[in-house]
Specification:
This protein is of the alpha/beta class and 290 residues long. It has a single domain, classed as Arginase, Chain A, CATH 3.40.800. 32% of the residues lie in helices and 18% in strands. It contains 8 helices and 10 strands. The strands form 2 sheets. It has an 8-stranded parallel sheet with strand order 4-1-5-10-9-6-7-8, sandwiched between helices. Helix 3 packs parallel to helix 4 and helix 7 runs parallel beside helix 8. It is globular, with a radius of gyration of 17 Å. The model has no long low-confidence stretch (mean pLDDT 95). It is an enzyme of class 3 (hydrolase).
């Protein structure tokens, strides 16, 4: 089920040609309609596909090859330019279709707001859903300069939807004081600055639960990922983020969907960030799609 059945362009390396036979579906959400600083993340999904050709199919971390996992690259969801609400509806509708077909949704952004409709769709299928969120920013605002739908609001909205105690944020190092206070008052699990060690402590408490994971590329320090819309100094290394992906893979959590967002390739002419994103997605597929 590709969006354009005549499509003959780039797909992620070793994606399976058949939707029906695939366990998981990779898709792009090329939207950056609400960004407050630097646009360009709508070009992220195709750049990830483009550079994936340089990846080895084998992961020495996990001792698995992409051939071991049947996943289908559906291409990019055709989103109406400049219309956030209709775009979110299109994304949610598509993900509902994937879930109805018992596929694992694997999204590529796009700004972080695109994760909201995916998480809502997944939450409608799994009653006890937990969210694991890697990011430099809290994303807990109720609105941004009067706009309800913003890349600054998705985690607040999903927390309101499934309950703040079911949301676990890691690597957070930026946000308004009120956002941090709200998280503390509501019992949300927000871990500042660090990722791997607090994640290792949390994972045993989530064993057996359905978990959706969203990774914002700006959780990485700009030295490791300059190609993102809102860079923020003091982040983690790519090695630590890879180790976190592998820790989740080795845990007892049931990963029911995931995404990687906020790659803006125009700000990194070396493609360093895109290559990192592509490798992260390889590890996520091999580690989380059993």
């Amino acid at each position: 089920m590709r969006f354009d059945e005549t499509y003959s362009g780039k797909v992620f390396i070793k994606s399976h040609p058949n939707y029906e036979e695939s366990k998981a579906v990779l898709y792009g959400m090329p939207m950056d309609w609400t960004v407050s600083y630097r646009p360009g993340s709508r070009f992220g999904p195709n750049k990830i596909r483009e550079v994936s050709i340089g990846l080895e199919e084998y992961s020495p971390y996990l001792d698995r090859e992409l051939e071991d996992v049947k996943f289908f690259d559906a291409g990019d969801i055709p989103l109406p330019f400049g219309n956030p609400e209709k775009s979110l509806l299109e994304i949610e509708t598509y993900v509902h279709t994937l879930l109805k077909d018992n596929k694992i949704p694997m999204g590529m952004g796009g700004e972080h707001l695109v994760s909201l409709p995916v998480m809502k769709a997944v939450a409608s299928k799994y009653d006890d859903l937990a969210i694991i969120h890697f990011d430099a920013h809290t994303d807990l605002r109720e609105n941004y300069e009067g706009e309800e739908y913003s890349h600054s609001t998705p985690i607040r909205k999903i927390a309101d939807h499934i309950g703040p105690k079911n949301v676990y944020s890691f690597g957070i190092r930026s946000g308004m004081k009120e956002e941090f206070e709200w998280a503390k008052e509501q019992g949300m699990h927000l871990y500042k600055f660090e990722v791997l060690e607090p994640l290792k402590q949390v994972l045993p408490t989530l064993e057996g639960r359905p978990v959706y994971i969203t990774i914002d590329m700006d959780v990485l320090d700009p030295a490791h990922a300059p190609g993102t819309g809102t860079v923020d100094a003091g982040g983690i290394t790519s090695r630590e983020l890879l180790a976190s992906i592998h820790a989740i893979a080795a845990s007892g959590v049931n990963v029911v969907g995931f995404d990687l967002v906020e790659l803006a390739p125009v700000y990194d002419h070396s493609d360093q960030t895109a290559n990192t994103a592509s490798k992260l997605i390889r590890e996520m597929i091999l580690g989380w799609v059993k």
